Amino acid sequence: MKQNFTKIIVETNKQKIIEITDQIQSIIKSSGIRDGLVTLYIKHTSASLMIQENADSDVLRDIEKYFDRLVPMNESDYIHRTEGPDDMPAHIKSVLTSTHLSIPFQAKDLSLGTWQGIFLFEHRINPSSRTIEIHVIGE
Amino acid sequence: MKQNFTKIIVETNKQKIIEITDQIQSIIKSSGIRDGLVTLYIKHTSASLMIQENADSDVLRDIEKYFDRLVPMNESDYIHRTEGPDDMPAHIKSVLTSTHLSIPFQAKDLSLGTWQGIFLFEHRINPSSRTIEIHVIGE
Amino acid sequence: MKQNFTKIIVETNKQKIIEITDQIQSIIKSSGIRDGLVTLYIKHTSASLMIQENADSDVLRDIEKYFDRLVPMNESDYIHRTEGPDDMPAHIKSVLTSTHLSIPFQAKDLSLGTWQGIFLFEHRINPSSRTIEIHVIGE
After folding, report:
1. Nearest CB to C92: which of B63, B98, B101?
2. Residues β-bridged to residue C105
3. For the domain that residue C83 is a member of, what is the CATH number?
4. What domain range is A39 assigned to?
5. What is the model's pLDDT at position C75?
6. CB-based contact A63 B99, cutoff 8 Å
7. Is residue B71 scored above 90 in pLDDT?
8. Given A1, A104, A114, which is nearest B41 (Cβ)?
9. Is B29 helix (H, G, I), strand (E, B) or coil?
10. If you count residue pairs, one on A and one on C, with CB atoms under 8 Å apart, how many are there?
11. Which residues of C fall below an 8 Å CB-CB distance to B?
12. Against a cut of 0.95, is the pTM above it?
């Protein structure tokens, strides 16, 4: 059994869902591990990781809009306001979604469904540099 | 340290929460691994995995109803409509819940709480065949 | 490759987000494993695990308030009412958040972001004793 650690940095410049499937698949290919489990962990609390459909990008746009309605920016009730009107909604969206993902892989291929992709969901408006830690274990 | 990979297929025929605890416990029993971690990964973006109470099925009915209210089918705002009125809500429910679960086990017993069960949460109306990949690691 | 299993018990006495980062970091330090993956699993369906900001506690208070609004106690629609008005909302909040977390660590340090902490999110009003199973794997 072996493990390895790597990280990727994703540059974002607005609230948006960004596909990272190819980058994760590449890391598996070059990991030296044929069969195992990969865990992604995002080191931020105002952006998330997500598995979703990658066939029709309208699905992603509808998800972005739904979350903007569910967690509105102009909520007079928020106490934490010092980092801008999009900050507290970003934290709440991160709680409602995922900070980590674990996906099995076999023969160096992620066990994703036919139309599944791996995504970073950026919740902040201003440009950010997002770090994702990637742990691979297997043999 | 050893690992193994298996999968189960769950047939669904409506929007419903379905218990799969016994099937996962059986896989652990026959895995050849005594102590370790099991990870379940569902290969779909319109059904979820969930840990919940399995003592009173009213809890499950209330969860189903809550999610139907939180993510309504007749939302005039959805762009993605080609796969039916239940499709976009299904994708959103999958983002709000979980695509994967990891549970420790010892002496071939899942470390579930007294009233915890493992469930598949089907978000589509029409019958579906749902594949869950199961990765077991330990010794 | 090695693994170990431990558990912690967190006493709660109201609906609140409670930081447990130091306890998890201590378990890593004394695990005998330098680099690996830690998985936390909470054995309850009315409390959750969460990664969030630990710099400004106002963020936590805003999250608590948001979830109380999103999943109200006085929802006439709930069927499951035998365990008190806070019980069914607690189950729903647990579905909307996380029952397990996986975090990589290197050189005995959790790969948390600068302002990230690990939290237990208690959803019940009455005092509870919450058990979290902790699985560490690595070498």
Report:
1. B63
2. C36, C110
3. 2.60.120.460
4. 2-138
5. 72
6. no
7. yes
8. A104
9. helix
10. 85
11. 1-3, 5, 39, 41-45, 70-71, 75, 77-80, 82, 88, 91-92, 94-96, 98-100, 102, 131, 133-135, 137
12. yes
